[in-house]
Amino acid sequence: ARVQGGEALEAGFGFSKAVEGAAVAQVRFKPVDGGQRVNLYVAVKDGKIAAVGKLSGEAAETVDAAGLTLAPGFIDVHGHSDFFMPLDPARASKLLQGVTTELCGQCGLGPAPVTEQNYPVYHKYLSQQGIPMYPDDRSFTSFSAYLSRMERTPAGINLAYFIPHGTVRLAVMGFSHDAPDERQLAQMQELVEDAMQAGALGLSTGLAYAPGRFAATDELAALTEPVGQHGGIYTSHLRDQGDQLEQSVQEAIDIARRGGARVNVSHHKAVGEQNFGKVRKTTQMLHEAGIPATHDVYPYAASSTMLISTLPMAFAQLEPQALLQALADPGELARLASLLLQGGSGDAAEACGLDRLLIANATKTPEAAGKTIRQIAQARGVSPFEAYAALLRENELGVQYIKFGMSESDVSHLMADELCMFGSDALYVPGMKVTHPRSIATFPCVLRRAVREEKSISLAEAVRKLTAMPAEVYGLAGKGRIAAGMDADLTLFDAAKITDHATYTQPLLPNEGIRRVYVGGVCAVRDDQYTGAMPGKLLRRSR
Checking phi first, is residue 174 left (phi over 0); if not, alpha (psi -120 to 50) or beta? Predict the structure, then answer.
């Protein structure tokens, strides 16, 4: 087709109108020139942006983008696709949100590294969560070996990786809740150093989960030293996102400072009505941290994670098999109820609000998905606590839940903050009947909610937070900008109409308003439909 293009187009294609993102090409945290829209043509050839401007000539394909917004491909700064690649390498659920790149290895857990010594414990623990296992995961003895494997694995989106602290600790110490000795600490540092040399983004922690929750601040600071030496980031699912939120944010800042690294707070939130408003203080703490600091958020007031995260430390520190045995022992169940009640009375699950949790996935009892623990208890004729314990036991700990425990006002505040980026924190593969709507709709939700409805951020600022900012913060070469020589990861959408339809009761409803998504110049989404393309690549930190 003939277009208003230049010789640079040749076997590429042209876009016209409203290139959103070109005006924020060289930013750190603020858009330049007001982040205004500009009308340009964008030529793509051989997976790269070949030219931007007023072009003329011929192209193999022309896309008329009049009235639409062209942005760099969205970057999901907090995802879990590394776990689900064996079952769903296409990751169409991300592409259909406009996402072209995801940062995974989050919350301290991931597929690598493993050791022969602790492989059985690793395999049982992850598989019990319903996480699909790689057939060759025994070969992931170093993070560099794992990245080499993923470099050869077809994918629908680009993937970059953090090395997960919990998996490192599991490889060296199993489920021990002791502090590491000198030899064990050195082994863990070597694994982190190997990952950083191989291009990992940094170190992630999940301090609410075993085995990460067993680690003291000193251990984490020591393991962050190789991260700091390579210019990486310490990102953390905090030790507590409720009553101890401020102390937990301070711990993350202290760990990163001691390791000489930058810090990011993962899925920043305050859980529990008594903690609403605390994010204003913790956001200010990040602004005043004295080191480069950021945070990420998803645009929902409900969280979702593994049900075992609700267990008190005395039970969470048990190895999976020992925990299952405890959940079948009447005496241990009585102790668990007492710990949950903490001196109170009544049903333990009801007293803790566990009865209101919505089950998103249960590996052995799929009929539980979509019901609250209270509803399951009523159907079984048992107490909420008995239903809670039975769900964990019957599913061999493999239960995920959704909890409605956050403030919409807090979410809005976080989304508008200058240091905040966006992540889905999604745990989803096709075939799941229930999931958190963030799995399907995070990025259209940001553009609908924050830009169109709340007007808390401009379209240009939203695009910056979705593209240029994370590309710079995480050292993703070639990403986040529309400029000659950059990778042709592009999302074309209707800013006036882009909409998320997924809800908690109907979480799989599709989005609308995304006209095209290109990954490396290959069209992966056309008019809200996945094309079947698999153009994604492994990304390594560029600094």
Answer: left
pLDDT of 22 over the 80 cut: no
- Listed ranges 15-29, 83-97, 301-315, 330-344; the one with the highest mean pLDDT: 83-97
Q: What is the Cα–Cα distance from 115 to 110, expressed in whole angstroms? A: 14
Nearest Cα neighbor of 298 from 436, 145, 122 is: 436
* CA atoms of 292 and 54, how far apart (whole Å): 38
Q: Where are the alpha helices (DSSP H) in 346-504?
A: 348-351, 373-380, 384-394, 408-416, 438-446, 459-466, 468-473
- Percent of the chain, pLDDT > 70? 93
Q: How far apart are CA 308 and CA 388, in angstroms?
A: 10
Which helix (DSSP H) or strand (DSSP E) does residue 49 occupy? Answer: strand 48-53
- In this prediction, residue 157 has a pLDDT band, given cuts at 50, 70 and 90, of very high
* Backbone torsions φ then ψ of 104, nearest 5 degrees: -120, -170
The answer, yes or no, to whether residue 344 has pLDDT greater than 70, is yes
DSSP assignment of 349-365 equals HHHTTGGGPEEEEESS-
Q: Which residues contact 491 (CB under 8 A, 6 or more apart)?
A: 70, 71, 72, 73, 74, 98, 100, 514, 516, 517, 518
Distances (CA, A) of 191 to 114, 136, 214, 338: 10, 19, 19, 40
Tokens 């699950």 -> residue: 349
C-alpha 355/C-alpha 301 separation (Å) is 18
Q: Which of 41, 61, 93, 43 is nearest to 427 (CA)?
A: 93
Q: How high is the pLDDT of residue 317? A: 81
Paired residues of 43 in beta bridges: 14, 51
**CA distance linking residue 266 with residue 296, whole number of Å:** 5
**Please, what sign has the CA dihedral across residues 90, 91, 97, 103?**
negative
Question: What are the tens digits of pLDDT across the range 441-472?
Answer: 999 999 999 999 999 999 999 999 999 999 99
Does the pLDDT of residue 425 top 50, yes or no?
Answer: yes
User: Which residues, in sequence order, are CB contacts of 145 under 8 Å at separation 6+?
Assistant: 112, 113, 139
Q: State the virtual CA torsion across 440, 444, 448, 451 in degrees, nearest 10.
A: 140
Residue type, 211: P
In degrees, rounded to 5, the angle at the alpha carbon of residue 403 between the alpha carbons of residues 399 and 409 is 155
Helix ranges (DSSP H) in 178-328 = 182-198, 217-229, 245-259, 278-287, 313-316, 320-327
Residue ranges of alpha helices (H) inside 381-437 are: 384-394, 408-416
Q: Which residues contact 506 (CB under 8 A, 6 or more apart)?
A: none
